Amino acid sequence: MKISFYIKLFLAFIVFAVLLLGFSSFAFNNFYKYHNEKKDKKETIDILNQEEKFFNYYLESYDEKIALMQSNIAKAKNKEEIIEFVENSVFNDENIYTFKIIGLDSKEKFRIEKISDGIKVINEEKLKSIFTKKYFKDMRVLKPKEILHYNSNLENISQIDFILRNENNFYVFKINFAQVFNKIENDFLKKTSIINPSDSSINKNLNLRNNIISKKIYLNDNQYFEFIIKNEDFTNDYIKDYYKSIIIVGFCIALFLSLLFSGPIAKLNTEVEEKNKKLDLSIKKNFLELNENQKVIDKHIMFVRLTKDNIIIDASYAFCYFLGYSKGELIGYNYNILIHKDMKKKEQKRIWKQIKSGQSYVGEIKGSKKDSEAFWIDLFVEGIFENKKLVGYTVICTDITNKKKIEELYVDLNKQVEQYNAIFENVNSGISLIDSTGNFVKLNGNFSKFLGYNSKELLSMNCTDIITEDSRKILQKILQEVREIGNISNLEKIFVRKNGTFIHLELSLSILSSDKEHLVFVVNSLEDKRKLQELNQNLEQRINQEVEKNIQKDKLHQQEQIKNAKLTSIGSLAAGIAHEINTPLTYIKGNLELMYYDILDLPEDEIRNRMKYDSEKMKEGINRIANIVESMREMSQSSKEIKERTNIYGTLITSLTMAYNRSRQVCKIYLNEKLFDIDSINKNEFVFCSKVQKQRIEQVWIIVINNALDELIKVEDYEKRVLNILLFEEKEQIIIKFKDSAGGIKEEIINDIFEPFVSSKEHSGMGVGLNIAKKIIDEQEGIIKAYNEENGAVFEIRLKKCEEE
């Protein structure tokens, strides 16, 4: 049997009324209990704070009293006076019942205890050491006149030791706080319990700790008392007495409400059911329409769904069709298979970071289809969040590939326009565009420059306005011919500038192939053409000059070859002469030494001394001949075309020796600041080694030395003629400087001094010596340069330093 909605509603009202009353009663009861417990807790905390102040007050009062007692005990002269003071003053306080003095070594020195009929002084043999007591560690760190409170008897928490540090010992007062604890426990509004938490026997009885409120009162850093007050129980079961009344009242209310509202509500329910039926039909209809819309969206809208790890879990048919994939080929794969290789990973990370922060992303991205064709799409990416956690992404796309291609075409077109404009403006020709009637439409800067008009002025003029009057008809005829034949070029015409002067320009005209209504009007300056004609006229003359110059060079080379052949012959002859001279010279030198020893054996007289002097002079002459012969022999040796390790200092000595006969008549020569003397030669005095061809380098030195002598001889005062040769190392290079005092090189030839046929000599020399010297230095991978310094010329040669063997 189906129960009617009316009866269901009636029963529901009854249940609702009973539950409502029951809940209200329960809530009121809990509120009442919570309010009283909160009030009681606050009251308990206030009591505990008052008890703490009370307890601390007694501690502080005894601290002050003990401080006063300490000063009097310290004044006592002997043990009897201390006993008398303790008995009459200290023990007057009924709560103090023990006094003792403990040394810094932890041993008791003195102890007095209060007994029922007086005092008791403890014998020395019964005094103990407290070294093992825990509180002795705390005592040792006390400062003078500092007090420590300690409960040393856990069984009796009311016994508190007051320990005062003196200069040489400790005063210990044992005080009974039983009266203080009794007042705290009984004299306040609530019963209070005092415990020492370190007492394990007491801790076992504190099982109901959730029903109490406690406060820790510290004696010292390690010990404290806990004041405990038990909470009152506010459980109230008064509501049990009213259950029957509640049920009756609830039933009456439910009956009344059901009679009052059941009828209208039942009627309203019938109407709602009818509406629900209609709504169900509407929902079904909308559902069918939604399915149709989803099909349309799937077919025409490109979208894809991803997990938070960027794995594809769904994609529309339109998206798959656009990419050339099937849905099965995409689902389960990472989205990276669709990203083009040109997309930077940094940009992708920026996109995902923005989305993970809760923001949507709108932008463009480049991708790659299944057939590797590139595409561009507009993206709208939004994160999917569940319980504020990112679980995936929804991506909606729009194809913009054609738009991108059009943009690229526009960019290319703009670039081409810019290039054409740049060419149009920067060519040397004057270019303009004219219409069919000859009016200027567009022109470049050179066109205006040729004629002296600005662009605005020319754009308001006709092309016939810028030529002479007698040529206007001819120009109009030419324009007509250009329209027929296409172009005419290289016509020389006289044009009229803005200031009225004439200018000859070369004119070219051509019709635009894409626009038959416009002509290109080009004018060129004739100056370049005239310059070319002048160049052509001078070309023959220049060729003749160059041919003559080459003939002179060939003659010079022939003379050099003849000179080299002569020098080779002279060298061979010099080598033979040096060899022939060496034999008798060695004979003469040996016999002279023997004769010198014989002269030394003669008796001392004038003839002996004269013979000795003459022998020494002869010996100097023979040594000079030997040096000259040796230098001739070295210079005349066959030149080896290979580079070898050579001491550059030795080559300078050889060259200076060969030039000595001339140099001694011209100037003084200093080698490394030492005057060169052929009679005192040591080729190994300095060692500066370089890998060069020895004879070639010596040839350079002779050329530079002879050039310096040629200039120095022009200086009239002999004392002002000096040639300094400096030889030193700098990093990995050997530097040789030839510095003279002949006034320096002329400015007009200093930059071309090493070129052939450049010379400062007026009557001799062809200007090829320094050119040969430069070529030799270049072959040795060195550097030679010339410059002026102070009052002379400097020739500086740099050679590579040879590594140590």
Automatic annotation (TrEMBL):
It holds the Pfam family PAS_9. It comes from the Bacteria. It is found in: Cell membrane. GO terms for cellular component: plasma membrane. It is a multi-pass membrane protein. InterPro entries: HATPase_C_sf, HATPase_dom, His_kinase_dom, HisK_dim/P_dom, HisK_dim/P_sf, PAC, PAS, PAS-like_dom_sf. It catalyses: ATP + protein L-histidine = ADP + protein N-phospho-L-histidine. CDD domains: HisKA (cd00082), PAS (cd00130). The keyword Transmembrane applies. Residues 522-549 form a coiled coil. NCBIfam families: sensory_box. This is histidine kinase.
